[in-house]
Amino acid sequence: MWVQVPHGVFFMSIKLLKELGQKAAKHNLKIWAVGGFARDFVLHKHTKDIDICVENNTAPLINYCQKTKSVKVQKFKNFGTARVTFENGFKLDFVCCRKEIYPKPAALPIVTKATIKEDLFRRDFTCNALALSLLPNEFFKIYDLYGALKDIKNKQISVLHSKSFEDDPTRLYRALRFASRLNFKFSKETEKLFKTALQKNYILLLSPVRKTNEIIKFLEEEKPSKIFNLIKKYQAQNLICESFKIPKNIDKLKTLEERMALLVLAQKNPLSFLNTLQMQKNNLLNNLLKFYQTKQAPYKALTKQEINLIKTLTPKINTLAYKPCFINGKILQDMGVKGAKISKVLTEIAKAQFAGKIKTKKAAKNVALKILKKDKSI
Known about the structure:
Layout: H1 11-26, E1 31-34, H2 36-42, E2 49-54, H3 59-68, E3 71-75, E4 82-86, E5 91-96, E6 98-101, E7 110-113, H4 116-121, E8 131-133, E9 142-143, H5 148-153, E10 156-157, H6 164-167, H7 170-182, E11 185-186, H8 188-199, H9 208-220, H10 224-233, H11 256-265, H12 270-277, H13 283-294, H14 304-313, H15 329-334, H16 341-354, H17 361-374
Helix pairs in contact: 7-9, 7-10, 11-13, 11-14, 16-17
C-alpha cells in the first residue's frame, strides 16, 4: 500500500528520513521506520521519537548523523543499536532487523539478525507490526505483513501468535497501555489469551523490577485511570499486586513523582506495596507517608505539591490537618514546659489538630495547659 506523505506533517522528521533513505540506498541497505511511528502515521498522530530498522548494518547511517547533525549518540553492543538525540530532544533509535526466540516463558529472548518480515513478527501486537520504507524509490510505502492496517481500522489490539503473552508477560501490561492510549479493544482471540495468561499467573515469572518498569509506563500515560479501569474490568489487579487498590483522581496529577506517590499512598499497606515492587522512596513520598502514619499536623509548612497530593488522596480531610501546628517548642517553653516533655505535648496537640479537635491557636494553648495540669511532672 502506498500513502502520500501529508504536507506539513512531521516536516523535520520527513526531511531527515528522506536523507537517511538516500544514504541507505547508496550503501545498498534496506531501511524502514517501524513500530509506533508507522502506526501513529496511519492514525495521523504525531510521534516525537522514531525507531529505525535496517537490514544488516546501521553504522553508515549512524555515522552520517554524527557527521552532519548536531547530535549525541549513545551506542549499545548488540545489533547495531544506537540512540541519536538531537538538540531539540528529537530521538532516532537505530537497530538491525532481528528475530527473537524465547527459550522459556518470561526469559530474555535469544536474538539473531533477520529480515524485516521476521523483525515485524517479533512485535507485541499487529498494530505495531508495521513498517514504512525510507528508500527513495518507495518512500513511505507501507509494509503490512500481518494485518496491522485491518486491526488499526477496526481499532483492535491483536497479538501475532498464541504464545505471545507466555513468551513475554510484560505484553499483558502493554496490551492495557495501548488499548487505553489508542482507544482500541482486544480482539476476541487476544482477549481470550489475555485472560488465560492471567489465570496461569505468567506475571509471577517477572522480576519486581520488570513489573515496576511497566507500572511506571502506566503512570507516564496521559490518562492512567483508563488503564486502571481496564485492570478492574479484567480483574487483573495481580498485574500490580494482590489486593491492589485503584487510586482516584490520578489523572489530575501531572508529574510521574506525584502519580507514583498517589499510587503508593492509595494502597492499604503502602510500605508492603513498596517492598513487593522494590520501589524507591523519594522525599515527597517519605514526607507524605510520615504525615498519614503519624496522623499529626506538621510542625512546618508543607509544600504546595504535598498539599495538592493530600487533597487529591483525601479530598474530605480536615484542612487544619495539613496546616502547621498552632504552637511550637518556643511557645511551650514560655508556658513552662521543659526538656523532653516538650515533644510529648507537641505530639498530643499536633494529633488533636489533625483530628479537628483543635481549631485555633488559643485552643491549642488551652490543651497544653490541661496537659500541664494533668501531668504535674512536666
